[in-house]
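Q: I'm writing up a methods section and want to include an example of the input and output format. Could you take the sequence below and give the corresponding predicted structure tokens, formatted cleanly so I can copy it straight into the document?
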Amino acid sequence: MKKITLVLAFIGMIGLQSCTINETTDTVDNDTISEVLEVTTSFSGASNANFYRMVTISPPIYTSDMILVYHLYEVDTQTGLDVWRLMPQTYYLPAGELDYNYDFTTHDVKLFMDADFNMNTLSAAWTQNQTFRIVIIPGYFSGKTSSKVDFNDYEATLKAYNINPMKIRKIKA
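A: Here is the clean output for your methods example:
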């Protein structure tokens, strides 16, 4: 009787293991498009903690999407072309180290400055009328082309994700 029970239990376990449910979900992100948002803003504050600006993303992006932010560093005097630098970006000034950085959620991008000195002493060249380009890359592309793109090169990033540089959407912070 004991052996029959063990055999039936063994057969039952084998039978249960052969029953599998394969659930599939659509992981392709068909709604987010690659695009660039441009914002020009100024930073100031009573303390170092206030040197940030929030930029709303509308419509919101998916959690699988990626955001890259480029800071307009200068305009090349020889060619007249904009020079964009991928953030985070660190500058070493006589007063100390200054950082431009960002973080993001599915609804917004926080652009902020950080320094190891009092940022209220910065000249307007560092804090006023700063231009940023926020590049939205759909999660669908992750792993497909991301490993082949030099994100430090703004133009190469646009080309890799088929973003038309003439269709940059200007927004307010």
